[in-house]
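User: Batch of two.

Assistant: Item 1 of 2:
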Amino acid sequence: MQILVIGYYGFGNVGDDICLAKTKDILNSLFVSPIVWILSADKNCYPNAVNRWNFFSIIKTIVKVDMLVFGGGGILQNKTSHFSLWYYLGFIFFAKCFNKKVFFLSQGIGPIRGIISKFILSWILMLVTKTTLRSQESSLLFKSTRDLKITSDLAFYKAPLYLSDSKLMSDSVGLNFCDVGSKCYYSSLVRETLDLGLSVVGLSFCSSIDTPLLADSGILKSDIKEFCVDSYYQPSTIQYYFIVAMRYHSCVWSILQGIPFIALAYDDKVLHLANYLNQPVLSMDAIQSKGIIKDAITTLTGNFGFYQGNIVQGRKSLLCSSKLNEWVFHDS
């Protein structure tokens, strides 16, 4: 069995690399010695990497594999780039041209802007063999839900769970920023957090983006912790009071650690996850207001047991639903 796994891999984004690792775990558990080809950036360390910019190499790989698997993430969108949407839809189109099956694993789809884009996307999605989505909202773009199930993000698949000891409560707060367009507001968020007598630690899940943003916000580079796939699932070496999380997979990390978080909802996927676990949310418009982060922190710390309890209870269902991703390959 030869399989091409498609995603935004090889760019140093820990969330995407975790989705790749979990996709490979599922494939290795369900198929006997599969040969997994990985669509990736050029000059990377993945075995069996296929250069995402080499059209002939891509077509050659599609022809020889048995199936294509979109392994997690939210790559089907045109918020950041219209080219990106057409690029990934092209894989589905060419796969069907060569009579190859296409599977979606825990995909997040959207936002999709434009009537024409939505129409073409809905038409091409009919070519997908079986699908799992990480949100109900994404299913609205499918004309049929017969071969579709709602699951949770791949990062929850067989993930370990931790819970900090409330008796060892610290004043350390983890901060994660990733939206470059809002970087002018981050320094004030850091200052207001420090003004409450809390200490801050930067949490970077993409060293090329998060780390510079955290450093520019006033956090010392020595106080920035950079994650990788191996460290992501380890118990935290720092006792955090709570997390201020922007990246989707920074929220997921906080959930796995059992730490309440304030979500900076730069994207709907972050908003949906925070709402599912009933965690405080600040919109990107809200963070422009002076004192808003102090109010959110006061609300969270004043109701700490409530917010932590929501995570402890809600994450069980997220881990359970992540196992549904195996269903995609049943009878394949």
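Item 2 of 2:
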Amino acid sequence: MEEKIKQIRAKTIEVLKTYFTEDAQVILQEIKELKKNPTVKDNQPLLEELGVYEALTGFIAFASLKEEEQLELFRIFLVKAFRVGIDVRNRFSIKMNLTADVLWPETAEAFLKKILQNEEKIGTEMITIQGEKEPVAPTLSNWLRDYNRRYGMDRHEKIVPHRYLNESGNIQKLNREEKILLLQLLEFYEELKFPSQKQIETALKNAIDQYVAEEGELAQEISTDETGGEAVFSGFKNEIERDLHEIIDEDINSLLKRFPKLSDQPITQKPIRLLFNDQVVNPTVGNWLADYRAYAGAGSHEISERSDYLLRSRNVQNLSDAERNRLGLILRSYDEGFMLPFSVAEQKIAFEKIGNQ
């Protein structure tokens, strides 16, 4: 039995390096079977050790778990996952890609609630919650309670977690490693939040006020002279038509935000098989980027990581030189902000406008 535990430990360490979902699923099944063994069932230390391996491996196979299992990982093992260096953002982004947009706010809220219930400790000394007198244990739930007391529950700008580390007296009780860990968790916590109704209303009011101010200036210009108004309208119409036929240069992330339809543009011919769920899908911009993120992780990447994907991904093996070049340009734009020519009228990247890059 001891040898079997050692093997599972070694496999867990290996899968934390490779991030192979299939291997993680095998380990989870082995642990599940091992827990049925009477010798293990009656040995609490062994059960706890296996529980850690099960949780860490669970984060690697995160997208394949039931949602109630995912939620429990967030409540019990999120800090450990960050502590050992698991790219939780990457594993969670796979779930996000598999969840319908209309369901995502409710789903994100459920995970936020579990984070707020997490009792794992960061640091060893007691901390004091803003507005309270009695010190409390340095659990993630208490750190977040203090954070929310200071800045409120709404979604905040990226600078706020950094401000907390500078302004909270509790931070002095942490060593450098613990400070970095807490900052990573605060940033992840903020990323899960959605703007509050008040924030949405404020943004909407500001947009309306700006629109009214701009339209007011235009209306005043038109009303001063009917002939002049016709000229303004004609110029305005020509400008719109010109905008529709022009080619704009922007990076892929900005283009996808402004023109969501771009996500459906095919960039190669044959269907591709997504790494994170083995599903066969159309070779569109959105699906290629989802596969790339699953392979290399969320966020931008170094040229070596991009080259590794373009060399080793199974989806890339049978691409023509032209297809591989188009894909490389998309990934370069995603990682480096490389500008791509985009046709507003056709709602697609005009690859033919790109010279030798």
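The longest helix spans residues 197-223.
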